[in-house]
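Its record is set out here:
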Amino acid sequence: MNKILTTITFLLFACATCVGQSSYKGLTPGRSTRADAERVLGQPVKSLSKTLVQYESSEEVVKVFVQYRDESPAAVVERIELTCSEVGGDAHDTCGPALNLGPLQGVLEDAHVFSRTGSIAYYGAPRFIAKTVFQKASDGDFRLANYSKKLYESAVPKSGCTGTIFGTWETERGRVNIRRVGDSGIQGTYVRNNGTFSLKPERDDYNTGGYVGEWKDDTGSGAMALVRYGNNFSASLSRGSEAAISSNKRTEDPSIGAISPENREPEKLNKERMLARDGLPPGEPLTGKCVP
């Protein structure tokens, strides 16, 4: 299962230059119509409701579902969902290519919601995609849904402990407020010393929830790195010019990060271990808990 998730994550972030709303075989939610879909995909093989239908797919392991705005022949496509079921040990070689996973490097993860059955990650403008993983005992289903802008904005969690970085957080520096800036950035403020920060996503093959950038307040400025875990976040503020997030974040080994206990004050050592545990560089820690 972990091998499959790693492969899918790698494919998601393999391209740094692709932009624009996601499409499937030339069909774009919010613009294409039912007539366009049937011209490309053929007649439906199953109707789940008056506006949600399943089409036959040429890929062996994929199901294709299309949701329409209404039941008319001229109805606009609102969502196209591709499904791949893991079957046996070769699933990691087939699910990624079959789902036609779009590159999301630099695109903000608006929210990542976890449950006992799996998780769903939302990626906003300009892509408007939701990636769902349903976990089972030894396998799972992987779904990639391309949304119209209107439907995406009605579906994605907005704030208030719903798996998103946006909203209000309680921290050691007073309340922090975080908002989206454009398609690929976030900005925040914190009460103590009139602080502000600007961050952008940082991802690698394993790390999908980090942000790096700069902070500034009445005491000075520097680099900042932040990672979010559900309804909490952990950040490091340093006086340096660069910040990076390790792929070893959330390790259970408190010594990771080459921390040596010799000649270190206990409080400083505890802070460094906390940051290293979360894959964050050395600095002053900032921890946040969401405000409903």
The chain has two domains: 13-155, 167-290.
